[in-house]
Amino acid sequence: MSHVELSSGACFSGNCSEDCCFQQAGKEVLQIERNALAQLDQYINHDFSHACEKIFNCQGKVVVMGIGKSGHIGRKIAATFASTGTPAFFYPSHRS
């Protein structure tokens, strides 16, 4: 998990309640996430559409591969596909 440096506004100087500090931190995290989501817009292009079409039109099972962190995420993607009606399984890419 990454560490995010939050601003050191008045709420963090001990001048207000703990409740206010948590609220301010929560609002800052949401703004950071909004900014990150806005940057994803550039990746919704022809490649994205092509990948969606391939998965949507797949006649067999969708094979998801990965190793390490991408493997962990791949397992979750395959499980999500399978649980929502798209036959899928995870195959670790380090196997030959």
Write structural notes for this entry.
The protein is mainly alpha-helical and 96 residues long. Among the domains are: 10-41, no CATH class; 59-92, no CATH class. 50% of the residues lie in helices and 10% in strands. The protein has a two-stranded parallel ribbon with strand order 1-2. The chain starts with 17 loop residues before the first helix and ends with a strand.
> H/E series, N to C?
HHEHE
Radius of gyration based on Cα positions: 20 Å
What is the number of helices? 3
Distance between the termini: 31 Å
The secondary-structure class comes to mainly alpha
Fraction in helix: 40-55%
Q: Please state how the strands of the largest beta sheet are arranged side by side.
A: 1-2
Low-confidence stretches: none
Amount of beta strand: 5-15%
User: What overall geometry do the principal axes of the alpha carbons give?
Assistant: elongated
Structure summary, number of beta strands: 2
Keywords:
50% helix; two-stranded parallel ribbon; 96 residues; 2 strands; mainly alpha
At a glance:
Helices cover 50% and strands 10% of the residues.
Walk me through the topology.
Blueprint: H1 18-39, H2 46-56, E1 62-66, H3 69-83, E2 88-92
Parallel strand pairs: 1-2
